[in-house]
Amino acid sequence: MPKHIVRLVLILLATGVLAYAGKQLLTVKSFYQFGHYRGDSVAEIASDRPKFRTPKACEQCHAARYEEWAKGVHNNPGIGKVVKCEVCHGAASSRDSNPHGDNSATGTDHPDKLKLDIPTDTVRLCTQCHEQMPGRPAEQKQIVVATHAGDQQCKTCHNVHSPRTFVGALASTSRPGNAAAGKAIAADCAECHGKAGISDDAAIPSLAGQNETYLADAIKAYKKGSRKDATMSGMAKDLSDTAAENLAAYYASLQCKSTQNGDPKGAARGQTLAAQCVSCHGANGINKQAMWPSLAGQSKDYLLSALKSYKAERTNGMMNKVAKDLNDADAAALADYFANASCR
Ligand code: HEC
Ligand code: HEC
Ligand code: HEC
Ligand code: HEC
Ligand code: HEC
Ligand code: HEC
Predict the structure, then answer these.
(1) How much is the pLDDT for 103?
(2) Spatial separation of the C-alpha atoms in residues 205 and 209, rounded to whole Å
(3) How many angstroms does the Cα of residue 206 sit away from the middle of ligand 5?
(4) Of 13, 66, 132, 183, whose CB neighbour count within 10 A is largest?
């Protein structure tokens, strides 16, 4: 055999012996017992204290938040989609930071010593899961932040513990009314709002097909004085809350009719400007959110006067800000666009 082959064989043998000796001497016994890791680590990890305590652990002390959360959209164990308390608030237990990784059973606990995080920037928190991006599963509802919320915090509208419940200006106390009972007392309203809820007078809003909750809240607002109008304040004064809800149910059940009294040139310009409105008023001015009004179906005149009044006396957290930023020409173009939009 040539010398260099002998040397090669010797080197290979020596490497094999060294590798075997290394495995025997340098790795722990339980290595490869179950797979490519230490078998003992399973028992060690099991004896570690859990960092995450799961929502059940929070219930005893935070019953109210737990209740809201448990009934909310973030708790859907049926399809395995559960956003647990500790996803947003951080782990409720810690382990001590022992650099040798020995069993670390002496960390701190919430509420004893360990403070949990209260997320202040909900835009950052919620968009981690809800911002629209390619490849994200559609079942996890996605939004385009710029058109959905602008620069507002998610928590100004969504209850963080039950996001399908709305808060602040979005919360409504109105319950569904009885349309038949509403029809019976609607005669007084027909004079101005039209027989079938479609107003002939461009200065007066149509009510037909408008969102029920919005209508009920509007009548109650005139009654309480939080929305003022010379005629409507008087009309609403003597209506009970139930009557308001019944009238709202009646008018919401009627077919709307688009006024089409906008100027087509203005409408074309209004269409581009309307991008800032659709997140709240729906595509083309038809709103699916019950608490907020649809704009399609109203006349140019009424829409414009409403926008003007949000700059002065009519108060609403959301619309006051929107209206303040609109100049007269833009407001008119928007009114043209929504007046010409089909309401169905
Ligand atoms: C043994 C009762 C108890 C349990 C269990 C408990 N908490 Fe608390 N939690 C408290 C108390 C008491 C405070 C108020 C602490 C303070 O103000 O110093 C608090 C405060 C908080 C706060 C406000 C931030 C802070 O640390 O002050 C958050 C958030 C919170 N808890 C979330 C949770 C979550 C999530 C769980 C379940 C993993 C949970 N808590 C379990 C008693 C409890
Ligand atoms: C999707 C994220 C999210 C989940 C899940 C969540 N929280 Fe919260 N929680 C928040 C945010 C954001 C705030 C701050 C709200 C605010 O500033 O108005 C908060 C506030 C709190 C507070 C009040 C802190 C304070 O003193 O202001 C408590 C207590 C709390 N959460 C407990 C819980 C418990 C218990 C659970 C589970 C049952 C839970 N949270 C699940 C996001 C979440
Ligand atoms: C860890 C990821 C995660 C975080 C953080 C999170 N969500 Fe969710 N959210 C989900 C998932 C998953 C669902 C869907 C649950 C289901 O399919 O039933 C959901 C559902 C919702 C829904 C209901 C959508 C529908 O089906 O109508 C709303 C609204 C919502 N989240 C808002 C929020 C808000 C507001 C925040 C911040 C306070 C937030 N989410 C934080 C994962 C998250
Ligand atoms: C101005 C109020 C407002 C703000 C701010 C807001 N939302 Fe919403 N959001 C709503 C309303 C109203 C709906 C319900 C729309 C509907 O039912 O069509 C909604 C629906 C959603 C949905 C469900 C969408 C769907 O397709 O069903 C998600 C997810 C959501 N919001 C996440 C967020 C997140 C994340 C933020 C913060 C970046 C946020 N929202 C800020 C008002 C708001
Ligand atoms: C004398 C005329 C008149 C009568 C009668 C009248 N309304 Fe009105 N209504 C108006 C005017 C004008 C407005 C617009 C006021 C404003 O700009 O706030 C209005 C506004 C409304 C609104 C708000 C619509 C919106 O889009 O915001 C509702 C809801 C409403 N009326 C319901 C009723 C009901 C219900 C009745 C019968 C009980 C009634 N109105 C009787 C003139 C009338
Ligand atoms: C952040 C959500 C939001 C945005 C964005 C928004 N609106 Fe509104 N808008 C509302 C709410 C809420 C109301 C009902 C307020 C009330 O009860 O007075 C409303 C009411 C109105 C009304 C009165 C309707 C009536 O029947 O009386 C008009 C007109 C209107 N909005 C126009 C617009 C226009 C035009 C834009 C875009 C430039 C816009 N809004 C953007 C939330 C919004």
Answers:
(1) 52
(2) 12
(3) 9
(4) 66
- The answer to whether residues 275 and 334 touch, using CB atoms and an 8 Å cutoff, is no
What are the tens digits of pLDDT across the range 64-112? 999 999 989 999 888 778 999 999 999 999 877 666 655 566 788 899 8
Residue 340 Cα distances to 118, 168, 205, 286, 308, angstroms: 46, 32, 15, 12, 19
Q: Which two tokens stand for residue 63?
A: 């019953």
Identify which of 222, 228, 328 has the alpha carbon closest to the alpha carbon of residue 273.
Answer: 328
Omega of the bond leading into 176 within 30 degrees of 0 (cis):
no
8 Å CB contact between 338 and 299 = no
Q: Nearest CA to 92 among 70, 69, 115?
A: 115
| Residue listed under structure tokens 């929305």 | 227
Residue 148 CA to residue 161 CA, distance in Å, equals 19
Q: Whose CA is nearest to atom 14 of ligand 6?
A: 292
Instruction: Give the pLDDT score at 79.
Output: 78
**Pocket residues: Cβ below 6 A from ligand 5:** 188-189, 191-193, 204-205, 207, 215, 218-219, 229, 231-232, 235, 247, 293
| Angstrom distance (rounded) from CA 218 to CA 224 | 10
User: What is the residue type of 226?
Assistant: S
Residues with a CB atom less than 6 Å from ligand 3:
73-74, 76, 79, 81, 83, 87, 122, 125-126, 128-130, 139-141, 154, 158, 160, 163-164
Alpha-carbon gap, residue 223 to 234, rounded angstroms? 8
Sign of the dihedral defined by the CA atoms of residues 306, 310, 316, 319, in that order: positive
Phi/psi at 181 (nearest 5 deg)?
A: -65, -35
Amino acid code (one letter) for 7 = R
Q: Are 221 and 300 in contact (CB under 8 A)?
A: no
